[in-house]
Task: structure prediction
Amino acid sequence: MNVLITGTSCGIGKGIAEKFLTMGHTVTGVDKLPSVINHSLYHHIEADIFRDELPELSAVDILINNAGVQNSGEDIDINLKGTIRVTEKYAFHEGIKSVLFIASASATSGAEFPEYAASKGGMVAYMKSTALRVAKYGATANSLSPGGVLTDLNRHIIDDPALWQAVMNETLLPKWASVEEIADWAYFVCMVNSSMTAQDIIIDNGEMAKANFIW
Result:
């Protein structure tokens, strides 16, 4: 499969790219930062998904929209509008198999920076529109909505005992997901799944299910 992934220079995007490469797929990464992946099946394109011209690609079997920013003042532009630009260019054609959006649990809970939550909520709504339109090609479109993930972006929480304990107190399972687990989810949804579409999968260790019963 030819896989196009945005935001592959770090974190979840890098992890997903490495998963697909390990499984023998050809991966093209799009990121405004230089490549950090050295693999014979990997091709890197330096581009801002919101501002730059997107290159012509001969075949995209799987599209994974991962690129994003947080509390940047540009969350709507990059996370939502940039993702729409990429999807409209590469997703709607004969041969597309799967489109995946990396959203956020905050798309449902709203419990994060306001523009970030709004951008991810918009992404989930746009995912459903995408699912409606790729169905005629026999393709699926879904989104993953992680809660906390063990990435460098969250290092200030991971390395602060007080913040970390406060976060753990808000989950049913006192942990965060690893990048590798999210990558496994992405691979399953795109490569194994063929029947689930238009669905948002929340992977938050039970944070939204947490309820303290007071008697």
In short: The chain has a mean pLDDT of 96.
